[in-house]
Amino acid sequence: MRLRMAPSLRRQRDSLDFAHPFRTPLHPFLSLLICVHLWFHLLLNVRPDADAARLKRVSIYPLFPRLPPAPYIPPVSSDLAPPAEPSDYLARLNPEQREAVENIDGPLLVLAGAGTGKTRVLTTRFAHILLSGRAAPGQVLSVTFTNKAAREMRERVGAILGRPVEGLWLGTFHALCARMLRRHAALVGLTSGFSILDTDDQLRVLKQVMETYKIDPKRWAPPALMAIIQRWKDRGLTPPRVTQAEDTDFAGGRVREVYAAYQTRLAQLNTADFGDLLLHMAEILRTHPE
After folding, report:
1. Strand boundaries in 16-127, DSSP class E
2. Contact 242/259 with Cβ under 8 angstroms?
3. Quick one: residue 140, left, alpha or beta (phi over 0 = left, psi -120 to 50 = alpha)?
4. Who's near 26: CB < 8 A, 6+ residues apart?
5. Can the peptide bond before residue 223 be classed as cis, meaning omega within 30 degrees of 0?
6. 127 contact partners, CB below 8 Å, separation of at least 6
7. HEC assignment per residue over 117-156
């Protein structure tokens, strides 16, 4: 038997149809979300009429119950981490490596091929000198050539010591010289806040000096002139130390004059190029041994 709705009820339903939320067909995925949402309401026993504040905190994203926050555990300071025991960092060495690490009385030369553990010996010996009390952290200098090697050495020494190594004298030649030069910059006419020029800025300053001396940059290439100056710097030759025999016929035999003017211009700008980091420190150590 088929039931029919009374005309009065049908008219009342039609008048309210425009406000019904399910008047238009729903997307299947939206229907699924609504079902999951209602399922979580039943599971969590959330009552909209009695707990409206909690209802606002319930969301269908993500579709899993919200877990309570994990308790906060403060990180352990690396300054408080205990240093490695002697057996920990010495047990990993072979007899030859351990002999080199424990020989801390006087100079030591280690000759070894690639991949034989030279860096391990160097970093372990560095840490062993500090842990044995033979020297203070500021009395040990460890130098390498590349930033990658310096970073690896710092990590290894820090792991053995159990504390940060930022204050130790460990790094590349240029990095350590720049650090020392900032402490004694006044001895070479600079301030501690001097800037280090890159290659493009070096050539820009050199071209200004060449223009002052009326040297044609098309005839005498600035990079070639800069290469001569950098070779002198690598040899530790300041402008007064460049002799007539060291001079060249490049740029009409005026390279020494250009070199001196270039260094004066760098000092006026409170800057130094990459070669100056080693040159200035060599000059400071030569003239101020204290």
Report:
1. none
2. yes
3. beta
4. 34
5. no
6. 89, 157, 160, 161
7. CHHHHHHHHHHHHHHCCCCCHHHCEEEECCHHHHHHHHHH
Spatial contact of 266 and 273, defined as CB atoms under 8 Å apart: yes
Mean pLDDT of 1-5: 53
User: Which amino acid belongs to residue 124?
Assistant: T
Residue 18 pLDDT more than 90? no
* Cα–Cα distance, 92 to 120 (Å, whole number): 10
Question: What's the CA gap between 281 and 62, in Å, rounded?
Answer: 61
The reply to whether the predicted model has a pTM over 0.85 is no
- Tokens found for residue 206: 């050199």
Mean pLDDT value across the chain? 79
CA distances in angstroms from 40 to 27, 68, 163, 286, listed in the order given = 20, 17, 50, 79
Tokens of 140: 């040990």
Residue 106 falls in which region: left (phi positive, over 0), alpha (psi -120 to 50) or beta: left
In angstroms, the CA 139 to CA 141 distance is 7
* Beta-strand runs (E) in 52-209: 141-144, 169-172, 195-196
Cβ-contact 276, 233 below 8 angstroms: yes
**Rounded Cα gap, residues 249 and 255, in angstroms:** 8
Residue 271: its H or E element: strand 271-272
pLDDT tens digits for 32-71? 666 666 665 555 554 444 444 443 444 434 444 454 554 5
